[in-house]
Amino acid sequence: xxxxxxxPRKTTESTLMRLLMLTTTLSSMTxxxxxxxxxxxxxxxQLSYAQVSWLxxxxxxxxxxxxxxxxxxxxxxxxKNLLTFGLSLFAFGSLMGLLSSSYWSALAGRLIQSVxxxxxxxxxxxxxxxxxxxxxxxxxxxxxAAGVALGGALAPVxxxxxxxxAHWRWLFVPPxxxxxxxxxxxxxxxxxxxxxxxxxxxxxxxxxxLLAAAVALxxxxxxxxxxxxxxxxxxxxxxFAVRIRVAEQPFIRPALFRNKGxxxxxxxxxxxxxxxxxxxxxxxxxxxxxxHLDADLIGFAMAPAALASSILGRKGGKLADxxxxxxxxxxxxxxxxxxxLLLSSFAGVSPLLVSAFLIxxxxxxxxxxxxxxxxxxxxxxxDQVGVGMGLFTMLNFIAQGVxxxxxxxxAEYDAAxxxxxxxxxxxxxxxxxxYVILAAMHAGILFCWSVRFRxxxxxxGDA
Length: 463
Description:
Layout: H1 9-32, H2 38-45, H3 49-52, H4 54-74, H5 79-98, H6 103-117, H7 119-131, H8 137-165, H9 182-188, H10 205-223, H11 227-246, H12 260-276, H13 278-289, H14 295-323, H15 325-346, H16 351-379, H17 385-410, H18 429-452
Helix pairs in contact: 1-7, 1-8, 4-6, 4-7, 4-10, 4-17, 5-6, 5-7, 7-8, 7-17, 8-14, 8-16, 10-11, 10-17, 12-16, 12-17, 12-18, 13-14, 14-15, 14-16, 15-16, 15-18
């Protein structure tokens, strides 16, 4: 839905992008900052770590499915109304968690938070697609990517500072600030009345329920290493595939998957995010197990890379507009490959080197995300932008969840020696080997991208 808004247009674009950057920063920070306090919650309520981890895993599962649901609803209803509902629910869950007196009431608040917060990643992809001209869309996506990166940088710092002066429940406070953005969203999200009339299509609750079950069961199966749950998830996915073919008004139209440009970009994005999450999952384990840093120092060691990503994200978006998505993708992929090779070579040498090398990886992951998002947005017809971008975002979360389960299993093994001849000593040999594999995977993904999108680098998304 490419609007020709004259309000003036550039002022509207600029305001919306700044609002989105603030919103994605707070949303990203909220999603991550509870990870550090889980041991404290476990101790306070005398619960196992597996039980209190639902503050994070439950949030992720609902967050993943919620993105595609909001995307689907965005094809039917006004974005300003969806944001009002989502951010209000986000704030309500935050208030509920802040006032909670038991673990279960805190968990309920956290899950309600997630249902509301899921509107943010979905609409952060849809708003640039609908409201920003194609030639400036890279800049817009760069600002949202910068917000995500900045939230990731702030999460461990805010958690550590909060825990040093107050109770962990005060981590529920920052999302309440998002309520102040609602008047601005309602003012600047100007939509064509003809295009924002509620679609007469009914919402396919059965199809949505099957997809939700597939996502939840599959992620729980992978993270819990349960073959039964994985098979149940695959069965639910098969039933969902049947449902969208027989339903008159399916949750997702099968024609979306017959869009070759969209399907190819989606497949590559899945692999990219599966590899990229290693930077956030494996690196803290490396710093803890090999370099023996505590949680606070790990957070500060990873902060420079996240801050660099937030600063360079917008510049990367401008580069995509000027040089094309393929140019940005290749540059970002090279940065990621360099990061993994450097980590593989010097994983056991110094935490300062790990922190420095992580900058290449985080910046590369942020920029490659911009290139992929911009590409995907250009493959979609206007009547499928909402659900298409929502599905894209959901699959990214699934890729990360699956990859975390795989990395967790790999991290339990020992390595007698490193496959990298430059790596010295046995310290960090296991991580060195994993990073070598990830570098090779990224090289393979880069080759696939170059083959698929080599003909028209400046309009790759239109393929």
